[in-house]
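Project standup — Tuesday

K.O.: blocked on the structure for the chain from last sprint. Re-posting the sequence here as requested.
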Amino acid sequence: MSVVPADVLPGRALAAEKAAAGPAELGPRARLWPSLVAVYRAQLSRARVARIPLLFVATFQSVGIMVLMRGVVDGGGEAQAVVAGASVLVVAFVALNLLAQYFGQLRASGGLDHYATLPVPPAAVVLGAAGAYASFTVPGTVVTAAFGCVLFGLPLAHLWVLVAVIPLAGAALSGLGAALGLLAPRPELATLLGQLGMSAALLLGVLPADRMPEVVRLARDLLPSTYGVEAFARTFGEHPDWAFVVGDLAVCGAVGVVSLAVATWAYRRAAVR
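H.V.: unblocked you, prediction finished:
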């Protein structure tokens, strides 16, 4: 039996040459869009079981508010504000309230460590989760808007505007909800902030702006969902001013970009701690 040194083996020599050549190159970084789609599908699958209860609660709440307001609001601009505000409130309930609770619990339980180990950009995690939660609001928002139009005698012709209102208001509120959940030091505080945000969307979005004090109107202008409510409410008129509708939607979209950017920064901040 002969003994051959390991250094003269072909495989050993090849490995030595690779080691001498330098460290191995890493694979290419994951692109944003494929990562976003993967996170979005994973979040949809995760929350599929709870989808029906979420839709029922969010829709029932908004429909109940409109029924109560029917006793004090007859029609006109006040009815338009109530229907538009109640419709966007469905988005606020899921995208703002529930998303704040989700990220707050994810941070407290160490779930962010799992996402931090995945080869996905931080923006994909935030946008994927926000998009999944906002998607749950589509049926409830459409049902609430249609019911409100029938209840208050408003036209149904321009309900297609919800195609723009839902994603833009959802982006603004989802970014705010994610930021609140990621920045809150405890999950209980994240839940509280989400509830307060939804209450603000309820009080400042559903109640007619003409009956509010000036200070409250200023606070209403700072709420991201206000511009989605205003855009939707303008479409109920006989001759909608589409320039103002597009302007409100543009502001809502800009706020959504800023809020999602803040949520992405908050995710990076929470993931490295």
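K.O.: great, moving the ticket to review. The chain has a mean pLDDT of 82. The chain has twelve helices and no strands.
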